[in-house]
Amino acid sequence: MQTLRTTSLEIRDNQLWILDQQALPQQKNWLPAHDVVQLVDHIHALRVRGAPLIGLSASLLLALLAEQGMAQAALAEALEVLRAARPTAVNLMNNLDRMKVALAHPDFVSALTHEALRLVEEDKQLCDNIARAGSALVKPGSQLLTHCNTGGLATAGVGTALGVIAHAHQQGKVKNVWVDETRPLLQGGRLTAWELGELGIPYHLITDSMAASLMARGVVDAIWFGADRIAANGDVANKIGTYSLAVLAQYHGVPFYVAAPHTTLDRLCPNGDAIPIEQRAASEVTGVAGSFGSVQWAPENAAVYNPAFDVTPAALISGWVLDTGVVTPEQVKEGIFQVR
Ligand code: MRU
Q1: Within 13 Å and on the Cβ side, how many CA atoms surround 215?
Q2: Which of the listed residues 150, 223, 265, 280 should we mutate to test ligand 1's pocket, taking the one with most ligand atoms within 8 A of CB?
Q3: What pLDDT digit, counting tens, does each position of 44-91 carry?
Q4: Pairwise CA distance, residues 144 & 134, whole Å
Q5: pTM summary value
């Protein structure tokens, strides 16, 4: 396969490499993701993370394995193992559905390569379209709040919600970004803060519990976040903590926008209750681990509840900013996301 490089994926010497998103920003380690076991392990550990990136990494690996001579039946098995790597982000399933069609082709090796590279190119385009559509909603002098990480690290392009913010910043409209640190795994504190710094966008890092007081002070003009799955009724699954921001935004009259590619839409999923929510290890809540080492503060054997995502009901969302344009609450109520 041709050499390829995005912010956090690389194809080099016909092998897949990933930028370890757990070590950032202290260390920039490119790790091998040369087989299914390695990639699934990276996805479980969130070294590869973000809804679009998970789907793209799985698709690229499948194409590379085909090029290396893996048989069609073994590729079909590999595809199913990759599909089960994480349950909530539907981009993984949507991308692999397309790879499955390519796998059925008589010349499946070239079909898989072609499809995987097309998914990467499309994702860049989707991000650009989202950034353009979303930035039109950003008012000059805005202070925007964002949660988790939705930038170039999580996609093949400029990102989703963070792509909107970056585009609006290029247009001179962003005064400041409030970055939720995003407990428990700190995607905001580690990744979004780093990406904003690299882009030269002014930001302040806050702990998640500080968002309410900022909204009360009137210094949050809009909230922008990404999605792991959008159900047919417009409910959105995203990083844990998004729902509490939505409730706060409603109370304070702050616009609440989701930015996502159409590959995050699940028209067959009727509503948020039907979205599978990943539960993660207790150790993520009882302490913290990273490139600096690890520390535990909770008592040994503390009982823990640790869902990776929550669901924000459609009624709390001001607009769904997709690559196809901005979808309004009225359009969602009329069923624009339902199977047509
Ligand atoms: O657990 P993560 O870090 O993969 O969660 C990521 C998110 O929730 C993002 O907001 C979402 O995937 C959109 S990324 C463009």
Answers
A1: 23
A2: 150
A3: 999 999 999 999 999 999 999 999 999 999 999 999 999 999 999 999
A4: 12
A5: 0.96
